[in-house]
Amino acid sequence: MTQIAKVLLKSTSGDEFSCSVHYERSSGLVMLPARVDSLVDASTALGERHVLMLLEDGYQYPLIREEGPTYRVDRASVAKRGWLQEARMAVKTPSKDQRLQYGRLAHTLSAAATIGSVTYLSGARVWNLTTIGNGACLFLMAGVLFVVGAVLSKGDK
Fold it and tell me: Which end of the chain has fewer CB atoms within 10 angstroms, the N or the C?
């Protein structure tokens, strides 16, 4: 069954071009539109290197030219990672968007710790050293989380 898929063309000149293509999932064949095929031929003629990638389910699969505007999806060269490996990578080497989301979470937790500190101290019947220490720890945690959130939300460095 033929479906419409998205293909990304990247060249060494810095150009990025995306387009919709006919994709025969059962055979793994992609049929490029004539204008994209002419761009590929033109970049090859100019001596530029390029790569064509099929975007599917969050993965980028390289395309290998068969003949003319027909390409074959090379699924063997893309190793899908398991859920645990993806989770480990999200914590160990987060993307820019993930760092931004982690920063937002830290800011939210900072606000919750500030509110918790104020609520804890205002609701205490007796103020003693333990109560003040607990309130101070919550307030200190709010400050640390705020700074962590500010660093993570910085974006591009």
Answer: C
Distances in whole angstroms, Cα of residue 60 to Cα of each of 57, 70, 79: 8, 18, 11
Write the CATH number of the domain with boundaries 2-77. Answer: 2.40.10.10
Per DSSP, helices labelled H in the chain are 34-45, 83-92, 96-123, 129-152
| Domain residue ranges of the chain, discontinuous segments joined by + | 2-77, 91-152
Structure tokens at 28: 């793994």
Other C-beta atoms within 10 Å of 85: how many?
Answer: 11
pLDDT tens, 47-82?
888 888 888 877 788 888 888 888 888 877 766 677
Strand partners, 31: 22, 70
Instruction: pLDDT band for 156, please (50, 70, 90 cuts).
Output: low
Q: What does each C-alpha distance from 57 to 46, 54, 93 come to in angstroms?
A: 33, 10, 21
Considering the entire predicted model, what is its pTM? 0.57
Task: Indicate if the alpha-carbon torsion angle 144, 145, 148, 149 is positive or negative.
Answer: negative
For residue 75, the SS3 value is helix
The region that residue 140 occupies, defined by phi over 0 for left and psi between -120 and 50 for alpha, beta otherwise, is: alpha
